[in-house]
């Protein structure tokens, strides 16, 4: 069995910025992505997206894509620009191994 090395890029962001992050993913060349809704937790900026809050308009989402290192680098450069403009993002990048190389650019 042959395995292929890829990058898993995960971004947690307020719903208001979801479409901008998705556009960045698509413009960077991802072959696909997944959006997880209703992400909530507590951190430096307090509780975000807790049940009973204004979660419908101010909650967080997580946007995830598995891609090759070149595409991941383009995404990270765009995310860095967003962070520099004051947009609050949580970004995770992990090395992953996949079975189907053709599924992930």
TrEMBL record:
Instruction: Write out the transmembrane intervals.
Output: none
Write one Gene Ontology MF term.
enzyme regulator activity
Q: Which domain of life is it from?
A: Bacteria
Q: Which GO terms describe its biological process?
A: regulation of nitrogen utilization
User: Pfam families annotated for this entry?
Assistant: P-II
Q: Which InterPro entries match?
A: N-reg_PII, N-reg_PII-like_a/b, N-reg_PII/ATP_PRibTrfase_C
Could you tell me what this protein is called? Uncharacterized protein
